[in-house]
Specification:
By secondary structure, the chain is mainly α. It has one helix at 2-94. It is built from one helix and no strands. It is rod-shaped and about 135 Å long. Residues 18-95 form the ABC transmembrane type-1 domain.
Length: 95
Amino acid sequence: MIDKLIRDTAWHRHTTILLLSLVVVAAAVVVVVVVVVVVVVVVVVVVLVVVVVVVVVVVVVVVVVVVVVVVVVVVVVVVVVVVVVVVVVVIVVVV
């Protein structure tokens, strides 16, 4: 009877240790999965922020270049028109 009780107690102790080990392993797996998910989310957010910043910078540069080109073209056209008008007026006045 005592021998059986000792065996039962030892079996329960081993079973408890095994179950606790499984719980610890499961908790470790959950922690690792949570850390991996957090790292992936942070990396995705950082990449998205970098992409948005690059797109905004490119759009601003393109807009500035277009505005500069338009201003240069308008100035050139105005100068050409003024020169032509002055030449025509000089020709008309002289002739």
